[in-house]
Amino acid sequence: MDSKKDIRIVDIARMAGVSIGTVDRVIHKRGRVSEESLKKVNAVLSMVNYSPNIFARSLVSKKNYKVVALIPQHSTDDYWMYISEGLERASEEAKSSGIAFERLYFNQYDRASFEKSIERLLTLDVDGVIIANFFSSEVVRISKALDVRNIPYVYIDANIEDQNPLAYFGTHSYDSGAVAARIISGRIGQKEDILIAKMFHNSKELSNQVLSRQKGFLDYIERSAFAGKIYYADLKIDAHIRNFEALDKIFDEQTGHSIRAAITFNSTCHVLANYLKVRDRKLTYLVGYDLIEKNKVLLKEGYIDLLIGQRPELQGYRALKVITDKLLLNLQSEKINYMPIDLLIKENIDYYQNL
Amino acid sequence: MDSKKDIRIVDIARMAGVSIGTVDRVIHKRGRVSEESLKKVNAVLSMVNYSPNIFARSLVSKKNYKVVALIPQHSTDDYWMYISEGLERASEEAKSSGIAFERLYFNQYDRASFEKSIERLLTLDVDGVIIANFFSSEVVRISKALDVRNIPYVYIDANIEDQNPLAYFGTHSYDSGAVAARIISGRIGQKEDILIAKMFHNSKELSNQVLSRQKGFLDYIERSAFAGKIYYADLKIDAHIRNFEALDKIFDEQTGHSIRAAITFNSTCHVLANYLKVRDRKLTYLVGYDLIEKNKVLLKEGYIDLLIGQRPELQGYRALKVITDKLLLNLQSEKINYMPIDLLIKENIDYYQNL
DNA sequence: AAAAATAGTGTGTTCGATAACACACTTAAA
DNA sequence: TTTAAGTGTGTTATCGAACACACTATTTTT
């Protein structure tokens, strides 16, 4: 265990009776080694537990790796901004080891823009790729291309079976929906009602992430003793007036309802919370996702009761970390990595750490 | 921002018009530098942003630091074991940089044993210390001794004002009590009762940690609309039969009670949960602290409803990390560091990550 | 006045891995 | 037979920081 006894290349060379140049060629598979030398060196290598001194290596190595992340365009205070922050932090740490990190943005609602990013990526000379998995068939395509070139890649957000990413980082959306359901059903009566607010972006379909959370939620509710009704509000991003009308309609006109809890399965809980704040309506329990600033403020003010966090920064950080560990140290990692499902309320949000 | 443009000692030497040896002497304050050279080098140093290449440094440096942690003896599956794991992990990472890490154990219920550990510590030639802050006046004493010797130290678990630790890592016990209160009071009726189980260790007093959690809990309850009663159960560690009797007494003999929720403010929630399991009594909500195995099992089985976690591993990890960052890179860090207050239920415990 | 100590400075070596380079051979083509 | 290309091997400069050491110039001690 003594770190001073670490075996060096020169030790191996001596043991094998060859020069350090030969050992180096064997280790790095650079060829130009005779059968005989190869055998001798490999024999020694299989005996001893050699791992290169990373300090010496990084010192000399002028090797520059380029890692590219394919992520959706995002605004500030957005789930993807937090992922991006995690990437940034990992990138800072790896910079001194010769890792250049770059982002390629695409429009998450436009498949064509994703394809364009892929094309661009393939023209770049990259050594590692992080892919936000929005368009599965395209991701499969690029994965195969990367497999051929032997370039490691990592998926974030969603996984795809039967591919060979170095790792996958994401959240277990289904179970996080179940978590929300468990908590809400503990807070309201069995015959009270629940409102699910769906936020649409330019009338496109909901993301898999959101659908999966909702499924986990509904499945749990179904199995439970819940006997109330579930109402749905279809909201549109940035359609302030229209959204208020839609919500008014549900709360005013739906006769006989007793909505006591509400949930949104994406980060737009603040829209609903803001509606309740403005209209001065009280619910027993309002649940949302993602610790974006707008949500945090409303949580602290008491208009949101629970936020479910998924550590986007950690996701980004670890995604890049896995690639740099692979490139620099040839380390393996866990294949499937789910982020924690964090529960944040007014009283513990100040202690939250996203990394 | 370009990592290749990092300034080296030779650059500084050239800029100052002296040799690298002189720059080195200035940087390391090793003396033997003329007024004139000193001024020239310092002028350059204040212009540029020099930070040594850690790879080159670690490669050449045979400097060995010794860091010692003063922590209480603990069994497996104990809060302090998890802190210890965090320390271990940080120690592994730092080993290759010449950091030797060692633990000194004391009996957390015996002041004299702590004093003895301090004495031992002072005989060792250490470069950094981590102190589990159990006995304040003794900790103040050793802190002053370390200040004199200019040895950095970090507090964990509890802080002391007016001292100069490099950093403090701990949990905000009071607020975590409030978190528990908020959640429990949301789950039971205003006139239902709460049981607080206190677990004593060899009839000694409760720890500050536990008292502070309880205070946070009670203060919140007081301010809330809660109108039920609070019962207390005084339990003794390992006194199985006696504990059952005490609990039987509360649940059976206290007439007219309606205890629906219970809480323990230390990691022994499993004792209470096990009692409820064996006696087949149902509560609406049982809350405990610390993600030790016994608690986790009972949470998954549904006998515990909520566990509050404080990331002991992270605490240990970061405590040592702060010291190694100081010793190796002379980095500063945040002074006061509270760990997150994690809320774990059956549905999200599988995704918990303690680091 | 000579010898010894000290201040101030620069040079050279070390750490371990890497890869360019030099050199000795072999084989194939001209 | 000469030339060119290719193979296998060992030697060596390099990365940047650290520090031992050698050297000169000055001061202090005998």
From TrEMBL, chains A, B:
PROSITE patterns: HTH_LACI_1 (PS00356), HTH_LACI_2 (PS50932). Keywords: DNA-binding, Transcription, Transcription regulation. InterPro entries: HTH_LacI, Lambda_DNA-bd_dom_sf, Peripla_BP_I, SBP_2_dom. Residues 7-61 form the HTH lacI-type domain. GO terms for molecular function: DNA-binding transcription factor activity; transcription cis-regulatory region binding. CDD domains: HTH_LacI (cd01392). It comes from the Bacteria. It holds the Pfam family LacI. This is LacI family transcriptional regulator. It comes from Arcticibacter pallidicorallinus.
